[in-house]
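Quick log. Single chain, no ligands specified.
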Amino acid sequence: MTGPRASAGSRSRRAGPRRSPAAAGGRAKGSPFGRGDLAASLVLVFPLFLAYEVGVMFSPTVNGVDFVTRWVFAAVGYDRERFLLVHLVLAVGFLGLLIHLRRQRAFRLRMFPPMLIESILYAVTMGTAIAVVMERVLGLGVAGPGALGLDPVQVAGGEHTRIVVMSLGAGVHEELVFRLGMMGGGAAALMLAGLGRGASVTVALVASAVLFSAAHHAGPLGEPFDTSVFVYRAMAGAVFGLIFYFRSLAHAVYTHFLYDLYVLLLRS
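-> predicted structure:
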């Protein structure tokens, strides 16, 4: 008699609902793109992308590594109404996708609050942590908006709309380019070339952090080089990279966005 009951219990366990990858909270640990679920992260990040795209139309600010907005704006003939219409269609499509994913239990909104809270904690503490390391370990001073990677004129001006758009653009586009593209993609390329996963991720993390910092000084519109500012940004890039790898892309994007917003709006 115990045999059939055990068998039925086994069948019941096997027939139980499967947890989606997003709900389970991760991908394979051996992935060069980290431990977070990339598809779920992209869903969580998309609303910030839409907010930035709309905000750009009402602000003179465009992120330096934002090639998407420039291309789409050119494609619609530099017409603002057409540009906004395109993003309205994207928003409706995204809402439909979100409803579909929830019905399929492939995405759960309840993962958003803990991710947001965790990102807020990272955002309000990382600046102080980096400053302590720079001053007490590296012997480099950190003072003023310039050392935080900010434009003193923008800080003093209190242009709130511009600040929000700047923060959104930094969080979304810089994390997509430097963390997802350069760090994740770079680690994947190195692994394909035969380098071990640990070494590949480490090299890609350092390289993407350095390039992230250097990009702010590149080109005719780049800022004058300053060692403290460069090191600060490189360390911030490394922190974002660690968050991307050990938590998720969404954590990195929201942390970057909230960090910029926190510094620009509250600490100015």
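Residues 1-25, 144-149, 152-158 have pLDDT under 50 and may be disordered.
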